[in-house]
Amino acid sequence: MLSMILYPLLGSLVVLYFAFFSIAELGLEKLENTQIQIEQHQTKIENGEVVQTEQIESYTGNSIVDFLLKYTITSWIVSFLVYTIGLFAIGYMSIFLSLLIVGLLTPRILAIIHRKHYPTLKIDGYGTIIGGIWKLLYSTLVMFLLFIILIPFYFIPIINIFAINLPFYYFFHKMLHYDVGSTLMQKDQFNKIYYFNKTQMRLKTLFLYSVSLIPFVAFFIAVFYIIYLGHTYFIELDKEQNKTLVEV
After folding, report:
1. How does DSSP classify residue 9?
2. What pTM was computed for the model?
3. What DSSP state is assigned to residue 70?
4. I need a surface site. Which of 2, 105, 193, 242 has the fewest CB within 10 A?
5. Burial of 134 by CB count in 10 Å (0-12 exposed, 13-18 middle, 19+ buried)?
6. C-alpha to C-alpha distance for 226 and 240, rounded to whole angstroms
7. Count H helices, E strands: the chain?
8. Which 8-state DSSP code applies to residue 52?
9. What are the tens digits of pLDDT across the range 125-172?
10. Distance (Å, whole) CA 128 – CA 173
């Protein structure tokens, strides 16, 4: 089980490594090809009349980067923004990539848990490759729609923290529960268990998502998402199967 921690870690690091340098190279190339102009206005008074002349000067540097880095204050601001935005971007991308990679490992992880802790339980998942791709695309679409709908709240202090994270949490919550639930049981069982325990299920994924926001933590604990939720569903599935046996 511990060896599988390396898969999300190495997979995410490789993807982020190439993504970072590709985006950085593209961004710097774009900025280097962008010339800026500084427009100056001069006002003169001649013979008691105001005469306004307009003068346009092109900056002598090669790019907007040269202009920004020419001064200490602008250089510090640019560096701060780049590193801050980069840190947040890597954090959110690590969550996204870890979920995708650990989703491929979910059947194997749950099979180990089932064999060691719940061997008497009958599991019969309804998940398919097409169903998984559809769920991924649908959840991604809803996530982007939430980003657009919540744009007005991004400018309100404190509230913007929740508004920015809500779309990510939605995707995180939906994909994790789908991966685990569709591997262990049929759709009607999954819907029933989730419906009667939805508050508990949301709190569990909220806890996992909050931990994942710690920089780089998502690289190491993605496998434990499945273990944590897997035990939850196994316990509820055990209750359901015992209840069925009693009724019979």
Report:
1. H
2. 0.70
3. T
4. 2
5. exposed
6. 20
7. 8, 2
8. E
9. 888 889 888 998 999 999 999 999 998 998 888 888 899 899 999 999
10. 19
